Amino acid sequence: MTPARDFGSHSRHAQLPPRSNERFASPRLVTSPNGKVVHTADGRELVMRSIESGDITAVQRCFKRLSPQDVRRRFMHAMSELPLSMAQRLCRIDPELEAAYVLMDETMTPAELRGVGRIFVDEAANSAEFSVLVEREWTRIGLGALLMQQLVDESRRRGLTELWGYVLMENRPMLQLCKELGFVAKMMPGEAGTAQISLKL
Ligand SMILES: CC(C)(COP(=O)(O)OP(=O)(O)OC[C@H]1O[C@@H](n2cnc3c(N)ncnc32)[C@H](O)[C@@H]1OP(=O)(O)O)[C@@H](O)C(=O)NCCC(=O)NCCS
């Protein structure tokens, strides 16, 4: 069990919400034929499922809603647009080497993509590189932690021994999220602004 956070008196502590990586304990995740229905603590609903080739336009629309900072943090460099070929590549995955999970907002038509997490397997190293993204208006409600946990579970299911990723040192939200999930960070020699974070599985 994760130790309780020490924020002073017991009564104040009792009012804290659960840590984000505990918020999606099974009662909030309901399996449906389309994937898992995710009920957020603030009453919103999403469906988590594997990415599909039909998600290309939703991926493109999601990219247009991202801030330049989010784009840089996710792709590690600035990009003013997501080329169609790249959107296609992100949606048409090779299931042997990749897994990607999307959080779809099906309360509207067409459904909108609010978050995505993926792994890319390095067979030689028996490890996988991850990436994750949650749309700004949907952050701080545990979705990043949910996607990361899904990636950890999938990596373990594949028998991989390590899950790792590159994170910009200024990306405090991601570094904090990974720390909460037990990842450790190490500096990249020759790349001052980037950390490699990893979790032994
Ligand atoms: C980083 C990112 C995935 C976090 O997603 P999220 O849905 O907000 O994450 P969660 O709500 O699950 O937060 C989990 C924990 O991360 C930490 N965290 C998240 N956002 C934070 C912020 N803005 N400041 C400080 N800590 C933060 C907190 O410890 C949080 O737990 P808490 O809410 O109990 O305090 C999201 O901000 C994002 O997509 N950023 C742009 C893309 C990116 O940076 N990707 C990572 C590189 S691959």
From TrEMBL:
Protein name: GNAT family N-acetyltransferase
Pfam families: Acetyltransf_1
Stored Gene3D superfamilies: 3.40.630.30
Superkingdom of this protein's organism: Bacteria
InterPro entries: Acyl_CoA_acyltransferase, GNAT_dom
Ranges of residues in domain N-acetyltransferase: 46-201
Annotated region described as Disordered, given as residue ranges: 1-36
